[in-house]
Specification:
- The protein has 185 residues and is an alpha+beta fold.
- Helices cover 15% and strands 30% of the residues.
- It has one domain: NAC domain (Metal Binding Protein, Guanine Nucleotide Exchange Factor, Chain A).
- The chain has three helices and eight strands.
- The protein is globular and about 40 Å long.
- InterPro entries: NAC-dom, NAC_dom_sf.
Length: 185
């Protein structure tokens, strides 16, 4: 049910930490194609919740929050909006992942990042009406690719200049990932 307010909690001792491939293959494909799919990940209206409000409404594991939303869902909330940063990473031949950042008001960038997982039959055609979202704060979780995860406003590079969080996302990606901005044929 879309917009469910029920809290999703894992039993003690369990940690939800799937790979990108597992998120697309085992959860997003199942949601899109099976009439009765595993429903551990809830559905939320993205426009009804600011990122700091989704704890207890999404499947939360550590500082990551997982939920499904519709592809065409409005990405604006009462306090801000999710903005794509222009990075699209293919996930084998299964799907793709887009990166977004939450902006307050007229464009004040926050530390909230969303990885949005899609299935597609071609780079421009959506295969499913659903996307799977993983939301986290960049200071607590930068990326699964192993980038250093604890950043603050005081962090600077070797030249003494500030490094933006967007630069840190780019630095955490492999060179091959930057060459591929859409799914391979």
């Amino acid at each position: 049910m879309m917009g469910s307010e029920s809290s999703v909690k894992l039993p003690p001792g369990f940690y939800f930490s799937p790979t990108d491939e597992e998120l697309v293959l085992h959860f997003l494909y199942s949601k899109a194609s099976l009439p009765y799919h595993p429903n551990i990940i809830p559905e939320l209206h993205l426009s009804h919740h600011d990122p700091w409000e989704i704890y207890g409404k999404a499947l939360s594991s550590e500082n990551e929050h997982y939920f499904f939303t519709e592809v065409k869902e409005n990405r604006s909330t009462e306090n801000g909006y999710w903005k794509e940063i222009g990075v699209t990473k293919p996930i084998n031949k299964l799907g793709m992942k887009k990166y977004l950042v939450f902006n307050l008001g007229e464009g004040i960038e926050t530390s909230w990042v969303m990885e949005e997982y899609h299935i597609s039959s071609s780079p421009d055609e959506n295969w499913s009406k659903w996307v799977l979202c993983k939301v986290y704060e960049k200071e607590k979780k930068m990326s699964q690719e192993g980038a250093s995860c604890c950043y603050s406003d005081e962090d600077i590079d070797d030249n003494g200049t500030d490094v933006s969080w967007l630069d840190e996302v780019f630095m955490s990606l492999d060179d091959d990932d930057l060459d591929q901005t859409s799914l391979p044929n």
